[in-house]
Design a protein that fits this description.
This protein has three domains: 14-191, Alpha-D-Glucose-1,6-Bisphosphate, subunit A, domain 3 (Alpha-D-Glucose-1,6-Bisphosphate, Chain A, domain 3, 3-Layer(aba) Sandwich); 194-420, Alpha-D-Glucose-1,6-Bisphosphate, subunit A, domain 3 (Alpha-D-Glucose-1,6-Bisphosphate, Chain A, domain 3, 3-Layer(aba) Sandwich); 424-513, TATA-Binding Protein (2-Layer Sandwich). The protein has helices at residues 2-8, 16-24, 50-66, 83-96, 110-118, 152-167, 177-182, 193-199, 205-209, 225-234, 273-280, 309-322, 340-347, 363-367, 392-406, 409-420, 434-442, 498-513, and strands at residues 35-36, 39-43, 73-77, 101-103, 124-128, 137-143, 186-187, 215-218, 240-242, 286-290, 297-301, 305-306, 330-334, 351-355, 371-376, 380-382, 424-431, 453-454, 457-463, 468-472, 475-481, 487-494. The chain is α/β, with parallel strands linked by helices and 514 residues long. Helix content is 36%, strand content 20%. The strands form four sheets. A seven-stranded mixed sheet has the order 1-2-6-5-3-4-7, with helices on both faces.
């Protein structure tokens, strides 16, 4: 029904001029600065505008001075409409505060910001992006000295200080971009070569190059384009083709999502439709993609079509362990990610680290080499010894290697399910009201002491660190209230069958919404 609806919707072109005007001169009071798991985001205008960029940059400058953090800050953005303008404004403010800026003259993927930090060439970064959100949206991310997403305490400080500057914008220090360049406060450098050379220490590109398979890559109009070009050239990947080099800040060439909006989500069947068709036609054996800031991945194969992120993570984890590419004691996964990873970990003598939703919860484990793989069901992953940020380019390249060495990813996933059991997984967004969201958000594990059975299975424990997760003998469900919409997000997984999954979702809603 959803796909039928999508077929009847008409794609609307965005008004670039109006959005640029809204960025610099919003009609109405700009929203307060509010950092989510990956910075402040909003629709261009009152949701995100020049005032937000300048206030956040000034807050970061203040914090660096207060905490005596020394070193240059990397500033840039992806291919979104106002990413470059946002980066320029941030650079001007940082330079106005006497802080050296390394400015990216090209669109820059999120994992490269992180890579530059952990490599010691910069101490932090400001990144203009709104990930795979619709092109009308814009955002700004801050990564501190560990290279991963900023934690709650730090983002709280940024919010507080930035909102004070939103109220008093005349107190923000700034210097014109070209003037700052002349003074040496803003500099540029090669940001491609170090990253792709280091990537070759994790990905065996020779195995890809020597394969008889054909690989397609689609940057989805994003910042990864120059990096995939450089990877293809450096590692002589003649059997890898960039099937689209189109870049357009309206992203009009991306197929519309189920609701008529454009989202550059590489795990969704809508924007991935052209790639799915490429592998189904037999033109390519594998097709990979990353979103505009390249922190998420997606892929399709000839045998499996679009590969769900959970399936890809399981195949990657098994491959990294069996080939001893990453040596570490754990697999990290978020609360809503498949527990098939638990079975893979146990069979290989590893443990599972289950964290709240948000890649910031993996930072410590990645930095301290705890994870063979850290992944989330929303198509984010990294590994120890690499970036403590999601890296869609790493994922796509590793998945190409897996396909070259082990055959089709769908077939390998099938082998894993034959060995460990088949998980049936879903996520359902259920409309609700603010009162129900508030009630669910306030629930504690102790509120479920009388809950002994759900959908015919015994309750083994309940976790309340991020929504409510109920663990059963061979299944689980999780409910998390949305922070921006009146919906409850229900995740569920069972190792029984599809009908039990439906029963599990229905039972979960009764337990938590009644």
């Amino acid at each position: 029904m959803v796909s039928e609806l999508a077929g009847t919707l008409t794609k609307q072109r965005i008004d670039v001029g109006a959005l640029r005007e809204a960025f610099f001169h919003p009609q109405g009071q700009p929203a307060a600065v509010k950092f989510g798991t990956s910075g402040h985001r909003g629709t261009l205008g009152t949701g995100f505008c020049a005032a937000h960029a300048r206030a956040i940059a000034q807050a970061v400058a203040d914090i660096h001075k207060q905490d005596k953090i020394e070193g240059p800050i990397l500033v840039g953005g992806d291919t979104r409409l106002m990413s470059h303008d946002t980066a320029v404004l941030c650079a001007e403010v940082l330079a106005g505060n006497g802080i050296e800026v390394i400015f990216s003259d090209i669109a820059l993927p999120t994992p490269v910001f992180s890579f530059e930090i952990i490599s010691g060439r910069v101490c932090a970064s400001l990144n203009g992006t709104a990930s795979h959100n619709p092109p009308q949206d814009m955002g700004l991310k801050y990564n501190p000295s560990h290279g991963g997403p900023a934690g709650s305490e730090l983002t709280g400080r940024i919010e507080k200080i930035a909102n004070e500057y939103m109220a008093q914008p005349d107190t923000i220090k700034s210097i014109a971009f070209e003037q700052a360049r002349e003074k040496g406060l803003i500099k540029s450098t090669d940001l491609i070569t170090p990253y792709i050379e280091a990537l070759g220490k994790i990905v065996d590109f020779a195995k890809i190059a020597n394969s008889k398979l054909r690989f397609a890559i689609h940057p989805l109009g994003g910042a990864s384009l120059n990096f995939y070009r450089a990877i293809k050239e450096k590692y002589h990947l003649k059997n890898v083709e960039l099937v689209s080099e189109e870049q357009d800040p309206t992203f009009y060439f991306i197929p519309i999502d189920h609701d008529g909006k454009i989202r550059m989500d590489p795990s969704s069947p809508y924007p991935m439709k052209p790639l799915i068709e490429l592998v189904k036609s037999g033109s390519y054996d594998f097709a990979g993609a990353s979103d505009p800031d390249a922190d998420r991945f997606g892929c399709a194969t000839r045998e499996g079509g679009l590969i769900p992120p959970n399936h890809a993570l399981c195949v990657l984890a098994d491959y990294l362990i069996k080939h001893e590419k990453i040596k570490a004691p754990m697999i990290g996964r978020t609360l809503g990610t498949t527990s098939l990873l638990d079975r893979i970990a146990k069979a290989n003598g590893l443990t599972i680290d289950e964290v709240n939703v948000g890649f910031k919860y993996f930072v410590d484990g990645i930095v301290h080499h705890k994870y063979v793989l850290a992944g989330e069901e929303s198509a984010g992953m990294s590994v120890s010894g690499w970036t403590p940020e999601k890296d869609g380019m790493l994922a796509v390249c590793l998945l190409m290697e897996v396909n070259a060495v082990q055959g089709d990813i769908a077939s390998k996933y099938h082998q894993l399910t034959e060995q460990f059991g088949t998980p049936y997984y879903t996520r359902v967004d259920v409309p609700t009201d603010e009162a129900t969201k508030t009630r669910v958000k306030s629930l504690k594990a102790t509120d479920f002491t009388g809950l002994t059975e759900v959908a015919g299975e015994k309750v083994t424990r309940v976790r309340d660190t991020d929504g409510i997760k109920v663990y059963l003998e061979n299944s689980w469900f999780l409910a998390r209230p949305s922070g921006t919409e009146n919906i409850l997000k229900f995740y569920a997984e069972t190792f029984q069958d599809a009908s039990h999954l439906e029963e599990l979702i229905a039972s979960a809603q009764k337990v938590l919404m009644n």
